[in-house]
Amino acid sequence: MFRKRGRGFSISGLFLAWLGSAALAEPALPAAAQAGDLIFRKGTEGVSQMVMGVDQGLYSHVGMLVGRKGRWQVLHATPSEKPGQADGVVLDSLDFFLAPQRSQAFAVYHVQEGSAAQRQSAVQWALAQQGRGFEIVNASKGIYCTTLVWQAWTLAGLDWPVSLTEVTLPLLKGQYLLPSALQKSQRIRHIQ
């Protein structure tokens, strides 16, 4: 134990205090990140492995950044990641979205060409989808991660052509918008 001006402190106490403050820190995003930008992650769950097996891309999931620096949240359509939470469109903290038990890697992509009004409209539409059901088998009944962010921007007026992929699996058949199709789009630019 060390003493300084009559007060005692220990190395282990300082380490624990530092560790606690580090655990509360939000993951660092680039300064250029804005609400409406996309955040991709390589997930750890079984559904993530399935998506990556079909897609052959770097990431299995995507969400939309909402909020601002130091207070980022991620709006995304997902199977339930919390006990008692239904599958659907949810708003999670950035640290929850990127926690190691859910994310092996991530990347932030800036949506280009959209005006400030389109950006605001895309975020507002996406936020209004909270609680909407997650549905990948029959997308007419719900929404999934890529269609949530793509629809938000296209409904805000951004011309965003995408390629759909034909998927033929025992329980999953049809045309799907996969994460790599968004990631490769000329409408977005990698910023981290």
What does it look like?
Pfam families: Peptidase_C92. InterPro entries: Papain-like_cys_pep_sf, Peptidase_C92. The chain is of the alpha+beta class. It has one domain (37-190): endopeptidase fold (from Nostoc punctiforme) (Alpha-Beta Complex), CATH 3.90.1720. Helices cover 30% and strands 27% of the residues. It has six helices and ten strands. The chain has helices at residues 11-24, 46-55, 94-97, 116-128, 145-155, 179-183, and strands spanning 2-4, 7-9, 38-43, 61-66, 73-78, 88-93, 103-111, 165-169, 172-176, 188-190.
Descriptive key words:
single chain; 192 residues; alpha+beta; endopeptidase fold (from Nostoc punctiforme); six-stranded antiparallel beta sheet; two-stranded antiparallel ribbon; Peptidase_C92; Permuted papain-like amidase YaeF/Yiix C92 family enzyme; Papain-like_cys_pep_sf; signal
Name the CATH class.
Alpha Beta
Across the major sheet, the strand order is 6-5-4-3-7-10
The CATH architecture term is Alpha-Beta Complex
Percent in strands: 25-35%
Distance between the termini: 42 Å
pLDDT < 50 stretches:
1-23
- Into which percent range does the helicity of residues fall? 25-40%
The coarse overall form would be: globular
